[in-house]
Design goal:
Shape: elongated
Structural class: mainly alpha
Order of helices and strands: HHH
Largest sheet: none
Number of strands: 0
Helix content: over 70%
Number of helices: 3
């Protein structure tokens, strides 16, 4: 087994470990959104807009990590 094969495997393992962060982040974002809507149902529209923006940012970081796992 050459060192290149080993580093390729480590990149994929590293991305798998790094994907835990965005997964936790998405869970926390939607948990806060659902908790806010449970307290103030009439403010649903005002609460969900920042939730979707936060979700998009967290997922963009996850996709960036996915791309970097293959580039390096």
């Amino acid at each position: 087994m050459t060192p290149l094969e080993i580093s390729g495997s480590l990149n994929v393992i590293g991305y798998g470990l790094a994907a835990i962060g965005p997964g936790i982040g998405v869970g926390l974002i939607f948990a806060a959104g659902i908790g806010g809507i449970a307290r103030q149902p009439e403010a649903r529209g005002m609460i969900m807009q920042p939730v979707y923006i936060g979700f998009a940012i967290v997922e963009a970081l996850a996709i960036l990590g996915f791309v970097l796992a293959f580039v390096i």
